[in-house]
């Protein structure tokens, strides 16, 4: 406990023991020991007997003096470090040399740690001693650990790895949240709120202003993204940079070539829309990538692969398409739309680019603009035509029925093109948001086969199940249930457990709306297999309990939810000869 005192010429318990063993008059020896090792203040000696009279033990007195002096010394260390004396770090190093032998002594250890903390460059020998001792490493300040980590990537990786795992677990838990709401979904938290998450704050603190550690974290994220294809690592890459931006860490922000691009995109994500001004700014960054610096495209693509960025880009594209319809304009004539597609394409190609190390923007398939988008717009027009037809007086109505087939180009591009598929999926969400049952029944079966099974990914299913709550009353129809479940969700639930879980999540909220005869059959189908995860079993148990409770006491009808739909309806003009009203697309 008192190791290190003899090195400094200070007597310890062993010295006292030896003195008492060899002396002939123990009381005199104790007095002598106290005189030599007590507080060397002449005026104090005459005052100590007063403490004796009050029954205050000498240990208690010396301990209180010691504690007070230690606090003063620690304060003084901080004052010296923050001062402007050119030799301030020399003084701290001198103090470190004197105090370090006592680093294992609990009462002195805080002083040593305070000195280490305030030294911008701790002597390497001392750093190695701290690193080699688990107890010392554990209690030393993060400022000291940074100096250890920057030359020990494996040790830093061991510290960071649990945080990265925790981050992914939290993101995936959010996608399977028991809440099912269009207003409070995965994309609802603002960028600033997300950056207050525990993992982002801890990583930001661990990095501090150390560029080397920041680069290490980015390398970990790239490696994990390559290994797992998990896009949440892309989110963390952007959040980490913006967290450092919030703290005004210019040492890092000024050297990350993605900083201004990410800052601009962050503002768009906050608004859930890329306006024309910001679109031009983002285009300027992309066009400004100089020859020989193409590697930055790898990081830019990761930032654009962030689901929050993709969500913003596709919402902006859908809104852009609506505006083009209202203006009778073609997609290829819109520079903003072409730029949004360019960024979406760059983000969707992030994994391929980093994997191949070929840093070149992927070429956008022009037929997405000339064939897929016009086909998608024709679906909108079909729907609009049918709605207008229904509003005509009976004598003017034709025998027009709602179309059930989709244009071949629309279906083909959903299956063959990643960018087109992303847009198609968000168009389905847009239709659900408008509570358009006919269009939804027409579109959902086309999602059974999509590019890389994107329609069965957690992010889309998380959003779709929330959007379907807006059509809760439609689940009383066997035809609608058949399209949603038999025609889409149940086509892959047996091979994809995540789909099974999302169906159960939705039924936990909508079971009382589903046609009872259909629900009975559905529950038999959704019985979990013997080998399945605990969360799936838990969800099924919760739903079974809810159904039992509902049979005993039926729930009252839901109150309608007021909605801010985020996307502003845009009217599609009819021909000038028609006086029929227009309806939102």
From TrEMBL:
It comes from the Eukaryota. Residues 540-585 are annotated as: Disordered. Residues 569-585 have a biased composition (Low complexity). GO terms for cellular component: NELF complex. Residues 540-551 have a biased composition (Basic and acidic residues). GO terms for biological process: negative regulation of transcription elongation by RNA polymerase II. It holds the Pfam family COBRA1. PANTHER family: NEGATIVE ELONGATION FACTOR B (PTHR13503:SF3), NEGATIVE ELONGATION FACTOR COMPLEX MEMBER B (PTHR13503). This is Negative elongation factor complex member B. It comes from Xiphophorus couchianus (Monterrey platyfish).
